[in-house]
Automatic annotation (TrEMBL):
This is Aldo/keto reductase. The keyword Repeat does not apply. The keyword Oxidoreductase applies. Pfam families: Aldo_ket_red. Residues 22-316 form the NADP-dependent oxidoreductase domain. Its EC number is 1.1.1.-. InterPro entries: Aldo-Keto_reductase, NAD(P)_OxRdtase_dom_sf, NADP_OxRdtase_dom. Keywords: Oxidoreductase. Transmembrane segments: none annotated. It comes from Streptomyces carpinensis.
Amino acid sequence: MTDSRIPTVRLGEDGPEVGVQGLGCMGMSFAYGPTDTEASRATLERALELGVTLYDTADAYGAGENERFLSPFFRAHRDEVVIATKFALSIPPDEPTKRIIRNDAPYIRQAVEASLERLGVDVIDLYYMHRRDVNVPIEETVGTMAELVREGKVKHLGLSEVTADELRTAQAVHPIAAVQSEWSLFSRDIEARVVPAAHELGVALVPYSPLGRGFLTGSFVQAEKDLTDDDFRRTMPRFQGENATANATLLEPIRAVAKAHDASLAQIALAWVQQRAAVHGLPIVPIPGTRKPSRVEENLAATRIVLTEDELALLEPIAGQVAGTRYPDMSFASAGRE
Ligand SMILES: NC(=O)c1ccc[n+]([C@@H]2O[C@H](COP(=O)([O-])OP(=O)(O)OC[C@H]3O[C@@H](n4cnc5c(N)ncnc54)[C@H](OP(=O)(O)O)[C@@H]3O)[C@@H](O)[C@H]2O)c1
């Protein structure tokens, strides 16, 4: 390991050891407007050089397109990467705002085979339930996921956007390596119950959208004006109209802290989530998403920033002041069921 590589952390008690920051790959094929394939490939390679080992995708990202795109990179570096993918969610191509959620055994069994095929690998390192279908008992869903581990199709299990109670029930069926949920300066609802439960159970947290889907970097304000027509963020209440204008003013304290560290807003947002998890005594691996090698370098440099108590206090009130929810229908997230 060279000096420039990031430290590592273990996911859960028996999970994989991975670099302390992972890479979210969703935007390389889906959700955030036009992508540059060559730049995305270069981003993956640069991340690996710098010690990123956890790469995050899902079958839902572009209806399998993201898994297919990542396959050559994963196959070329199979022993160096930890592949995380997910099942449960599908988005009808002709109805991009609709979400179909399935957690039943026949669905999971066909989903895992399809992901293995698209990824072109024999085993998935970390397999997440992407969203909860409340019509299927979670014991049954995790029971089926555990069978996949015994059959050698999957190494470790994860859950996304589950409540604290769902996590406890799941952990009693099979060890859960990680919960992946939204956690950032703008989205702190999981700190009330999910984070303490994860700490109690020895489960790691993988914060998704740690940059507030890009909003915390200051790169856009009003989704309907600043983003392309097909950008998924246009559907999110907090990025729309007056909400977005009000939320942009909440970046001011982040700007002030960034200036003091000669850092970017993105770096302060990432340093904050890392330090907030330490307060909760929890191992975490944030997975900021980017398609640009220079931003991977910038985001990884955030792992070396230490915020002072005064700076943390300045950033503390932000989440409580955010206008608009993170999803149009919050039953899509754990907070809507807690
Ligand atoms: N489990 C779930 O339900 C769920 C939901 C959402 C996301 N995820 C996962 O979490 C990953 C990360 O979340 P996310 O992509 O939604 O949001 P994010 O990481 O908070 O933000 C990504 C956005 O920030 C921009 N960005 C990244 N680094 C930047 C920097 N240094 N300066 C300025 N802009 C920067 C990216 O643009 P560029 O790409 O152009 O750099 C992109 O638009 C996803 O890729 C996906 O794997 C999971």
